[in-house]
């Protein structure tokens, strides 16, 4: 009776979920009928800033959020194994007027893929006006559903005062990372200095008007791939 019921209603069988936080290989389980794949690209790193004098400020741009993609795939169309790539978060810019690195792309073979967010531009010390561009968002590049992340926030200085403390852009699986709250604090507000998991951009660095030293940008959040097999 159980076998008959399972043949009629496959939902009686518990799905099998595999979570990839690093690159690897997915192996198709016996009896797989269809597969739900979720792919999240990594976030970009935030921009850095140079040292400022008592009459200057500098704000780096935030890193862009990684893209996202999903598909439901007939398991019969898949080979015995599929290569899984998980993108690493973009490095936060080194202290100084440096641009953060682009986040890595994530993919499930060539079937489902998403790109990483761009790095935020480095800020420039100024007693006038200045804007540092936030990193562009990543997007889905293959799959049934393709979603863009959020662009990183611009870092803005007006009349020598830090006006916009650049945030890291959102990822579908990683919320926005706010910029620094103090004049000598770099990037993101976590102990790792990175964007929110998974796929959030790192915050841009800030140098305020108290003769702050050069500051580094926050690193982007890593990507992730989730594969759920139904029987």
Automatic annotation (TrEMBL):
Renumbered residue ranges of the record's region Disordered: 43-66, 116-139
Pfam families (UniProt xref): Gly_rich_2 (PF21722)
InterPro entries: Gly_rich_dom
Biased amino acid composition, Gly residues: 116-125
Domain Glycine-rich: residue ranges: 23-228
Name of this chain's protein: Glycine-rich domain-containing protein
Species name: Streptomyces tendae
